[in-house]
């Protein structure tokens, strides 16, 4: 007869159960810790990658326009620019090519024109006020932008319409210039004839304003001339009226506004990139002579002669958008080319970036 062996395993003792639970908790804690660490590392890498992409875009925008500041086609002197736009004088910034580069030190007056437009409240799509940060600098840049529109037949009179090979992307109300290698005339387009490919610049307070004081240009232009856009842009840092976060803004002509209200040439502030906390700018002045090499770099309010500004140094303080991926509060201060910036203590990561750029059209004078 075969006898069965007695089964001595009747269950788990309390000690065995506690040991098993403890081991399970330790394993679960370790796995959870690894998951949390990996998630924090991923979020940090993602935020820092986003910061790097933001500064790349911001620097590319600003430096590209600094290079083009003062570009007048094949002209070599701004004194050859005439304007028929109403209200434009030699020190007006936005509607003329005078002072192709300007600066604002800590949201102060724009130098050298003395303009204060857009310092305290810049309209953001005509709804929300946008104010420049008081401890951050700004830069203004102007240049002609080629758009592939050339004069196809000579003007018979100085007040004649401009017959072009194509009207291209131009809109009625835009501020443009007709230019050759000797002179340029800035005007507002009052009417565009797409059938005959002609541009009119009639006088009067047209719709949109400001209009032209006269239709007569400084001379008749021939087939060696082209029609270009007058681009005027201001870059500055401000708090977003929507999110409250700091961002890089551009103040420029709103080319989409002509069909909306049609009452005036509108300049609006547009948010370009988030995460820009501060911007400091130094202007390189050639004080030694005509070698177009900067001898000193100074703030906007310390420039001796703006005609001798041949380069600029731009420094940006960037911060991550999120601030909850690190348990260590950031209490650091940051040096932006000699200016100490002390941000609000929080849990964001920050980096300082700087670049020096030559103003190409000043280097060729």
List keywords for this structure.
9-stranded mixed beta sheet; alpha+beta; elongated; 365 residues; 20 strands
Task: Please provide a written account of the structure.
Strands 1, 2, 3, 6, 8, 9, 12, 13 and 14 form a nine-stranded mixed beta sheet that branches. Strands 16-15-17-20 form a four-stranded antiparallel beta sheet. Strands 7-11-10 form a three-stranded antiparallel beta sheet, with no helix packed on it. It has one domain. Helices cover 16% and strands 32% of the residues. By secondary structure, it is of the alpha+beta class. The chain contains two helices and 20 strands. The longest helix has 55 residues.
Low-confidence stretches: none
Radius of gyration: 30 Å
Distance between the termini: 117 Å
Mean pLDDT: 83
Query: How many strands?
Result: 20
Report the total helices. Answer: 2
Fraction in beta strands: 25-35%
Structural class: alpha+beta
Shape: elongated
Helix content: 10-25%
> How many domain modules?
1
Query: What is the string of SSEs from the N terminus onward?
Result: HEEEEEEEEEEEEEEEEEEEEH
The main sheet comes to: 9 strands, mixed
């Amino acid at each position: 007869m075969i006898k069965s062996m007695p089964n001595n395993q009747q269950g788990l003792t309390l000690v065995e159960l506690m040991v098993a639970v403890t081991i399970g908790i330790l394993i679960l804690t370790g796995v959870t810790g690894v998951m949390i660490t990996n998630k924090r590392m991923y979020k940090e890498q993602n935020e820092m990658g986003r910061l790097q992409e933001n500064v790349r875009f911001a620097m590319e925008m600003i430096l590209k326009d600094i290079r083009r500041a003062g570009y007048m086609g094949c002209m070599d002197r701004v004194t050859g620019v005439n304007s028929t736009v109403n209200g434009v004088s030699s020190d007006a910034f936005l509607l003329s090519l005078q002072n192709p580069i300007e600066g604002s030190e800590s949201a102060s007056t724009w130098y050298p024109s003395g303009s204060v437009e857009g310092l305290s409240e810049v309209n953001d799509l005509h709804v929300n006020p946008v104010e420049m940060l008081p401890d951050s600098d700004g830069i203004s840049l102007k240049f002609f932008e080629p758009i592939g529109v050339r004069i196809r037949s000579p003007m018979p009179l100085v007040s004649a319409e401009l017959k072009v090979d194509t009207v291209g992307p131009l809109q009625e109300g835009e501020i443009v210039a007709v230019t050759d290698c000797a002179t340029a005339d800035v005007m507002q387009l009052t009417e565009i004839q797409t059938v005959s490919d002609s541009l009119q610049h009639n006088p009067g307070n047209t719709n949109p304003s400001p209009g032209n004081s006269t239709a007569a240009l400084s001379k008749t232009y021939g087939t060696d001339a082209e029609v270009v856009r007058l681009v005027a842009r201001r870059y500055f840092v401000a708090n977003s009226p929507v999110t409250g976060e700091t961002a890089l803004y551009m103040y420029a002509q709103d080319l989409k506004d002509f069909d909306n209200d049609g009452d005036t040439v509108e300049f609006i502030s547009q948010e370009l990139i988030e995460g820009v906390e501060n911007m400091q700018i130094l202007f390189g002045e050639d004080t030694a002579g005509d070698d177009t090499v900067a001898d000193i770099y100074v703030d906007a309010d310390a420039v001796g002669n703006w005609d001798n500004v041949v380069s600029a140094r731009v420094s940006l303080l960037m911060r991550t958008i999120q601030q909850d991926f690190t348990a260590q509060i950031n209490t650091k201060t940051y040096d932006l080319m000699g200016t100490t910036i002390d941000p609000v203590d929080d849990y964001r990561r920050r980096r300082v970036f700087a670049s020096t750029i030559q103003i190409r059209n000043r280097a060729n004078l």
